[in-house]
Amino acid sequence: MKNEMDKTIIENHSRRRFLGAGSAALAAVAVTGLTADAQERANIRKAEHDHSSSNPGQENKTILDENPNSNMPPPTDSGDTVPIWYSFDLTKKRVEEGGWTHQVTEREFPSSRDIAGVNMRLTAGSFRELHWHTADEWAYVLYGSARVTVMNPDGSMFIEDVSEGDLWVFPAGYPHSIQGLGPDGTEFLLVFPQGSFSEDGTFLLSEWVAHTPPEVLRKNFGLDDAALAKLPTGALYIFPGELPGTLDRDKTQIGKALENRLQYTFKMKSMLPTKATSGGEVRIVDSRNFPVSRNIAAGLVTIKPGGMRELHWHPTSSEWQFYVAGKGRMTVFTPVGNARTMDYNANDVGYVPAVAGHYVENTGDTDLVFLELFASDLFQDVSLNNWLRHLPAEVVAQHLNLDAGSIKKIPEEKQVVLK
Q1: Strand order in the sheet with 85-87
Q2: Is 108 a catalytic residue?
Q3: Per-position pLDDT tens, the chain of length 419
Q4: Measured by CB atoms within 10 angstroms of the end CB, which terminus of the chain is less buried, N or C?
Q5: Is residue 27 in some structural domain?
Q6: 204: Cβ–Cβ under 8 A, 6 or more apart, which residues?
Q7: Which residues contact 211 (CB under 8 A, 6 or more apart)?
Q8: In whole angstroms, what is the distance from residue 128 CA to residue 4 CA?
Q9: Which of 199, 372, 394, 412 is catalytic?
Q10: 35 lies in some domain
């Protein structure tokens, strides 16, 4: 009896093993079939998408070629975000004898409520006339050299020469001037922490004089009628002038007693990188290393071909970008499930709302160089990688369905720029 029972148990066990193996084999076949079917459906959807997106009618191919990720967004794009792209090349240039200017403000780029930008050119010897603003002026020299002056309310003066890669800050209400130097003048980006700012709305010395009664000017300046007759009767704004002498000569004219102790210029491009990796580098300038920059913080980012500004966000301020060189793309993510991807080239402006997740990727074969700018005294960013690696591994595993080995591959230290 026992032998028969043992035989029955063995047969049932063998049968279960066979059925289990058979079930596994059938499951494998089913999965393979499902995978093949899913791939076929994906191919059909792609063909349908490609056909749906075709345009047999009119197209501006030049613009489409410059913005492939706007014309044909990646499938991860979804919903709607605020505009995140504009270009200085779309704006009207104000051309004067001695140079030109054009601007991207909240009027041209409605998303940008915190910052306005101005791109200006001065030929050799030409002035951006003596003036002052309602907002701080932050500037980055894109080309050539200039001589700048600014006066403090106590009458002390600052004068310095700046070249490509240098920056300056002039506080709101402080009178200043800019003059292009040899051999070919200068070009620079001006940034103001005021989205509605207009370069056309500055306080000009020439206009003040032109709109003040002559008898008041006579009392104020102590000049006779012959001298008053020579004063400007309209705005100078940008105008040609003679190249100045040496910086030392001008400093001597000002005199040591009036020399300002504060430093209003900074050599940004030539400073040591704040962070450098195999993918590129970033130089950060804010109130911590440039004390007069109390309302604008900036990062000069260089990304090598194939590199990427890591996934991150800024916790306190929106980001205003200016692209200096190269080609890139950026995706901005906002709630709920919204994402927009755009392409960027030299002279373009990018915008990221405060706390919105984003990255910037080099899509060209040369370095991508751009400025990140914030209406803030401090440059602050939160790295997604940094956050994930500082959490308990179990928390990350349960959110992203990653095993411990995969989680450890995520960079632990904030990289800023990845390769």
Answers
A1: 85-87, 348-352, 319-325, 368-374, 297-303, 280-285, 275-277
A2: no
A3: 444 544 444 455 444 444 344 444 443 444 344 456 767 776 776 676 667 777 888 888 888 888 999 888 999 999 989 999 999 999 999 999 999 999 999 999 999 999 999 999 999 999 999 999 999 999 999 999 999 999 999 999 999 999 999 999 999 999 999 999 999 999 999 999 999 999 999 999 999 999 999 999 999 999 999 999 999 999 999 999 999 999 999 999 999 888 888 999 999 999 999 999 999 999 999 999 999 999 999 999 999 999 999 999 999 999 999 999 999 999 999 999 999 999 999 999 999 999 999 999 999 999 999 999 999 999 999 999 999 999 999 999 999 999 999 999 999 999 999 99
A4: N
A5: no
A6: 129, 130, 131, 235, 236, 237
A7: none
A8: 108
A9: 372
A10: no
Structure token pair of residue 24: 């596994």
212: amino acid identity, one letter: T
Q: Is 0.85 topped by the overall pTM?
A: yes
**Does any domain span residue 336?**
yes
Supply the range of the domain harboring residue 110.
91-266
